[in-house]
């Protein structure tokens, strides 16, 4: 594993407690409730730099968030 990736292994994560949320679709005027389990969420978006380091892509210097995965 590269040292560049090792620096991200201790990345702080935010614990999101499980619970219930109400979702809605304004197009069809419908609401429903969904249960979800607790999960961890990164406090910042994953950047192209981090993604490239993980997949061993040599592109660097892009701090834009990763999209369309």
- Average pLDDT works out at 82
Order of helices and strands: HEEEEH
Annotation, overall tally of beta strands:
4
The radius of gyration is: 17 Å
Number of helices: 2
- Report helical residue fraction: 10-25%
What would you call the structural class? alpha+beta
The percentage of residues in β strands lies in: 25-35%
Alpha carbon gap, first and last residue? 22 Å
Biggest pleated-sheet summary: 2 strands, antiparallel
* Sheet with most strands: strand arrangement: 1-4
Shape: elongated
Uncertain residue segments: none
Describe, in plain words, how this protein is organized in 3D:
- The chain is built from 2 helices and 4 strands.
- It is an alpha+beta fold.
- The mean pLDDT is 82.
- The two termini are 22 Å apart.
- The chain has helices spanning 3-6, 48-54; strands spanning 14-16, 19-25, 30-36, 39-41.
SSE arrangement:
Elements: H1 3-6, E1 14-16, E2 19-25, E3 30-36, E4 39-41, H2 48-54
Antiparallel strand pairs: 1-4, 2-3
Descriptive keywords:
two-stranded antiparallel ribbon, 2 helices, 69 residues, 16% helix, alpha+beta
In brief:
With 69 residues, the protein is of the alpha+beta class. The protein has helices spanning 3-6, 48-54, and strands at residues 14-16, 19-25, 30-36, 39-41.
């Amino acid at each position: 594993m590269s040292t560049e990736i090792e620096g991200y292994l201790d990345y702080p994560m935010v614990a999101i407690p499980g619970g219930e949320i109400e979702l809605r679709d304004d197009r069809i005027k419908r609401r429903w409730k969904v249960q979800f389990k607790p999960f961890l969420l990164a406090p910042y978006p994953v950047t192209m730099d981090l993604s490239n380091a993980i997949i061993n892509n040599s592109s660097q210097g892009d701090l834009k968030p990763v999209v369309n995965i």
